[in-house]
């Protein structure tokens, strides 16, 4: 008999639900984005996010079941992002999941948002261990070593801003709309890397990251140029910034992959949609026996199919949440 897992994700600014079959096949995947509502504020406003989730969550769930042609009777487990994220936003998904699971007497499973981003890749291809995941999103920049399913060992992480956060902040400095990542990516392809922005390699052998110095360097460069009456093209700023971010992400991932004898490298999270990062990773790993994998763009940014994919593993490993499952904004992996 097939296994059907329901996933619910409301940790930030997307209200999402999905049903997957046998851990790896998407049956339906619905994402209601709130980006338009947050754009005029230049970033996600938590209170607005929570309200939108409340308005959307039932509709998104109804659409998910309608598209799948299934009912709650067919579902084996309800999985939901319990953290990290915005507390008010997470609470909407957690409560919807609890209500559904409790009323239909189904198992409830809490999923870590980053585990979800990693498991988005398993909807494309089976994992091979040891596996190294580079998770790059608006809230996270982490190198995670996995020796088996559900086993996450963080070997490097950002000490300040996340990669996506740096993209969004630099975009704001250039007066580009939120979220800035995709726009900077596009501009970078029309520009040249004419400014040598810093690359934070940190101590020898460290797999940690730091992007706040780079962000400040971009702001200072623009400020100084303005005072001198010098004008940089946004395209060139974007290209220079992007090459600094991409160089560090690719090099540290490569070194870690070699050091830990990795079989498969996966890139996950919103910034995994970045064209510059994708092509630089492909070039770097071209000659290697290491399998390199990116999720399709639609599965890079927040969605619930990835939560169900990670949830399916937890379900089969016997994990169950209690009925007092709560939103956990600072949850550790
Ligand atoms: O994973 P995600 O949807 O949400 C979080 O969990 O944070 O990632 C959103 C982040 C934003 O910072 C956005 O600017 C960035 O991913 N992003 C990109 C690109 N597409 C989205 N950054 C760089 N290049 C892109 N093409
Ligand atoms: Zn995310």
UniProtKB/TrEMBL annotation:
Q: Which domain of life is it from?
A: Bacteria
**Looking at its record, which EC class is this enzyme?**
transferase
Q: What is its EC number?
A: 2.3.1.234
Q: Which UniProt keywords apply?
A: Acyltransferase, Cytoplasm, Iron, Metal-binding, Transferase, tRNA processing
Main role?
Answer: Required for the formation of a threonylcarbamoyl group on adenosine at position 37 (t(6)A37) in tRNAs that read codons beginning with adenine. Is involved in the transfer of the threonylcarbamoyl moiety of threonylcarbamoyl-AMP (TC-AMP) to the N6 group of A37, together with TsaE and TsaB. TsaD likely plays a direct catalytic role in this reaction.
Q: Which family does it belong to?
A: Belongs to the KAE1 / TsaD family.
Q: What is this protein called?
A: tRNA N6-adenosine threonylcarbamoyltransferase
Organism equals Gracilibacillus xinjiangensis
């Amino acid at each position: 008999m097939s296994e059907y897992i329901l996933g619910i994700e409301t940790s930030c600014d997307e209200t999402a639900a999905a049903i997957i079959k046998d851990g790896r096949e998407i049956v339906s995947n619905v994402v209601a984005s709130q980006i338009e509502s947050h754009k005029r504020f230049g970033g996600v406003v938590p209170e607005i996010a929570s309200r939108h989730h409340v308005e959307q969550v039932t509709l998104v769930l109804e659409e998910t079941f309608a598209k799948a042609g299934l009912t709650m009777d067919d579902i084996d487990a309800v999985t939901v992002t319990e953290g990290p994220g915005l507390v008010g936003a997470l609470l909407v998904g957690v409560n919807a999941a609890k209500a559904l699971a409790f009323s239909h007497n189904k198992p409830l499973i809490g999923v870590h948002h980053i585990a979800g981003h990693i498991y988005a890749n398993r909807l494309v291809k089976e994992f091979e261990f040891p596996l190294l995941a580079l998770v790059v999103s608006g809230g996270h920049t982490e190198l995670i070593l996995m020796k088996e399913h559900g086993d996450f060992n963080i070997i490097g992480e950002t000490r300040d801003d996340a990669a996506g956060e740096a993209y969004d902040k630099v975009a704001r400095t250039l007066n580009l709309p939120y979220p800035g990542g995709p726009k900077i990516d596009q501009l970078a392809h029309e520009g040249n890397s004419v400014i040598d922005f810093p690359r934070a390699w940190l101590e020898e052998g460290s797999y940690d990251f730091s992007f706040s110095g780079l962000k400040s360097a971009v702001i200072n460069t623009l400020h100084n140029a303005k005072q001198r009456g010098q004008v940089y093209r946004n395209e060139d700023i974007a290209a220079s910034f992007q090459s600094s971010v991409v160089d560090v992400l690719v090099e540290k991932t490569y070194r870690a992959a070699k050091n830990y004898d990795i079989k498969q490298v996966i890139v996950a999270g919103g910034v995994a949609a970045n064209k510059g990062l994708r092509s630089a990773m492909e070039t770097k790993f071209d000659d290697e026996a290491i399998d390199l994998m990116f999720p399709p763009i639609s599965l890079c940014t927040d969605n619930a199919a990835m939560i169900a994919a990670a949830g399916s593993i937890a379900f089969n490993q016997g994990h169950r949440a209690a009925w007092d499952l709560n939103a956990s904004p600072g949850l550790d992996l």
